Amino acid sequence: MLADCDENGNIDPDEIEKKITNKTRAIMITHMWGVPCNMDKIQEIAKKNNFLLFEDFSHAHFAKYKDKFVGSFGDVSACSIQGQKTLTGGEGGILTTNSDEHYYRSLLFGHYNKRCVQEIPSDHPLKKFSITGMGLKQRIHPVSAAIADEQMDTIFDKIEIRRKFAKKIIRELEGVKGIRIPKIESHVEPSWYAFIFQYVPEELGGLPRDLFYKALVSEGCLDLDIPSSTCPLNLLSLFQNPKELYPSYEDKVQYSKGDFPNAEKFYQNILKIPVWSNEEDLSIIQQYIDAIKKVSENHMELIEYLKGGIKMKELNEEKQNNFLNELLTLAGNEGIDKVVVGAVIKNGEKILLLERPKDDFMGGINELPSGNMEKEETLRDALIRELKEETNLDLKSFLKYLGSFDYLSGSGKKTRQYNFLIDVIENGEIKLTEHNNFIWAEKENEAFKKVTDSVKKVLDKV
Ligand SMILES: Cc1ncc(COP(=O)(O)O)c(C=O)c1O
Fold first, then answer.
1. 93 CA: nearest ligand 1 atom
2. 80: Cβ below 6 Å to ligand 1?
3. For position 79, what pLDDT does the model report?
4. Whole-prediction pTM
5. Cα gap 162→158, rounded to integer Å
6. How many structural domains is the chain composed of?
7. d(Cα 296, Cα 212) in Å, to the nearest integer?
């Protein structure tokens, strides 16, 4: 059984209690991102129910809870020392336990022959398995173990530097609008595998995380990351449909999206930065802090950019294309199924409107030249094609992005129309294929009475 998380992304003890059944035998926890779980409560639950406790402290080497190392609370605990970990041997792991019984079983699980023969006492009931172990060999490569061992001389200094850097980040970013930093209680000493914080779009006028992220990257925060594989487990195929790999799990485990709202919200808004561990990296930390403050303070510029304040004609084609791609990413992130492009073409004060055939979806209205973006097309390609198909005109240049509006299509798809003020190549003769009529109309003209409110709002920006 999985359980939901707390505000730091760690397993929530109250959620553990809700999941206990008469089959529960053990609690398994992971100290996420180097921040220890709430060990007082978790130990209390384990003790009260006589459960075994297992810790995964792969992210939290040498982190402490009430002055005690994580990895020393569990009946058996383990950590990875794979390449990205704080203490690393490239690949491999470490298992800790105070129990001889768990130790002998673990030996049989990871090794066969020598170490099992040497270490399991001759009068122990498991001794007879020493030669084969459990039939597996999961031991670390000795070179990896030696590489990790070598780091033991310097690891505490590195972690101290990370703690100093993380304290600085927390001190400086506390209260900055649009982000929520982890709550670290005074009896907790994280080892800061990474610094995770939450993005709070509501505090920045709804600015999507993706754009906040991109703004920070363009401020030089190149190692800022949106974790993707480290997601709530219920979103992964192994937990949604395990029977394909493990037929015996049929009907036993079948999680879906929405099962763990706290973890899923946490994941939707997560951002991650490294916590460097060399003194000379202080300037990088400062650069990240300054960038986050700057983007937070200037978020309205980004909102304006999205709302259509941006003048595309001032951008070169490459930048225009980047911007157009950003709009598509945004649509994808927001669950839009279908993208439509709309073109506003001006002739003096007059705007080109096309009249939809009466028997069509939304028949009889006056609309902009517009149409669906096809698969494999860019927004630019779609606009060029649709303009040609519907009016026979040719795009000369993009002048201004005029914002978007969303609606449900005739077939019930979530559709977003992105609108652009454009120039067309002169002398083009309008030829209609899908519409009854075209009208060049000023905004006061009767023809605008048959324009939808969404398109009127777009035209307000012209
Ligand atoms: C929390 C946690 N547990 C387990 C693992 C697996 O470790 P390994 O790759 O050494 O098997 C990882 C690896 O990234 C991890 O981050």
1. 10
2. yes
3. 98
4. 0.74
5. 6
6. 2
7. 8
